[in-house]
From TrEMBL:
It comes from Pseudochelatococcus contaminans. Its EC number is 1.1.1.133. Signal peptide: none annotated. This is dTDP-4-dehydrorhamnose reductase. Its cofactor is Mg(2+). Belongs to the dTDP-4-dehydrorhamnose reductase family.
Length: 292
């Protein structure tokens, strides 16, 4: 199977590239050769590489900056995603698109299901929701995977920020009133391969199409996540700090974030027969990868 990934340097694209093996050829192309806001650049790349399936891993992910760069966020997360889905459709290929828990308002308790009402609280979430809708309209052969709180050894993310802060402080204040599930990018990549194999084998199967929630198991608030990072890091002899639980009001940011974006992953598990491990397990593997 040949998987074409739009985007190359991001956490997910690099995790997908790391899975390239004898039975799966992963080709990832990003800027400047491929810019998802330029549909012709996607068409050229698909024509050159002739994959079996397309994964859109390119996105505008700067949540706070998006509040003042609305046009750019929508150009990439809505129009760019639509371009990828359209180019795949023209080539007769299914598309896997990646979205976020931030499409939800976070005001409801419990676990969110795929069909639950959305209500983004910030520009990034609104642009990702518009992207989901554009992908679904552009290519009937689509799977939209909503994940959350992604971290990895690659690029910038919350885990790496915490380790950096612990390098020069003894205490870190972290919000304890926003709940979700930290998810290790290499686990998302593995699940995408599982999904891609099933979709390529049975492209018309509507059980394998539509929106799916895909996060690690379990739940946490950001302070829980930070504490677990420091607990495991200290056990490995790495940087650690004490975590002071604070409220969202104590940590003002340009973008509002959902208070509860726990995602129920039953549909993905049932349709593709695959579940991600507990979120703490990913923390262990990420710290091990950073330490190697
Ligand atoms: N990070 C997170 O916490 C979460 C992410 N997601 C979603 O998961 C997906 C993957 O995210 P992640 O890997 O973490 O993101 P990153 O921010 O690590 O990477 C995004 C990549 O997209 C590339 N990109 C941006 N604009 C374009 C463009 N116009 N053309 C081509 N490439 C472009 C960037 O390229 P360049 O290097 O040139 O800037 C960057 O390499 C995204 O859809 C994101 O919305 C969902 C939930 C949580
Ligand atoms: C660095 C830091 C953050 N925080 C808070 C701010 C915020 O509420 C929360 C997370 O902060 P970040 O800015 O790292 O995370 P954020 O950019 O909001 O992460 C989101 O990224 C996008 C791309 C997604 O799709 C989401 O699923 C989610 O992962 O932690 C603290 O309380 N203390 C700190 O020292």
């Amino acid at each position: 199977m040949k998987l074409f990934v739009s985007g190359r340097e991001g956490q997910l694209a690099r995790s997908l590239l790391a899975l390239s093996a004898a039975d799966v050829d992963v080709v990832a192309i990003g800027r400047p050769e491929l810019d998802i806001t330029d549909r012709a650049s996607i068409e050229r790349a698909l024509d050159a590489h002739k994959p079996d399936i397309v994964v859109n891993a390119a996105a505008y992910t700067a949540v706070d900056r998006a509040e003042s760069e609305r046009d750019q966020a929508f150009a990439i997360n809505r129009d760019g995603a639509e371009n990828v889905a359209l180019a795949a459709a023209e080539a007769g290929l299914p598309v896997i698109h990646v979205s976020t828990d931030y499409v939800f308002s976070g005001s409801a308790d419990g676990w969110r299901h795929e069909q639950d009402p959305t209500g983004p609280q910030n520009v990034y979430g609104a642009s990702k929701l518009a992207g989901e809708q554009a992908v679904a309209a552009a290519n009937p052969a689509h799977a939209i995977l909503r994940t959350a709180w992604v971290y990895s050894p690659y690029g910038g993310n919350f885990l790496k920020t915490m380790l950096r802060l612990a390098g020069d402080r003894e205490r870190v204040g972290v919000v304890a009133d926003q709940f979700g599930t930290p998810t290790y990018a290499p686990d998302i990549a593995e699940a995408i391969l599982v999904a891609a194999r099933a979709i390529v084998a049975d492209p018309q199967n509507s059980d394998l199409q539509g929106v799916f929630h895909l996060t690690a198991q379990g739940e946490a608030n950001w302070a829980d996540f930070a504490r677990e990072i420091f607990r495991q890091s200290a056990a490995r002899g790495g940087p650690s700090a004490a975590v002071d639980a604070i409220t969202t009001a104590d940590y003002p940011t340009p973008a509002r974030r959902p208070a509860n974006s726990r995602l129920d992953t039953t549909r993905f598990a049932t349709s593709f027969g695959h579940k991600l491990p507990d979120w703490r397990d990913g923390v262990a593997r990420c710290l091990a990868a950073l330490g190697d």
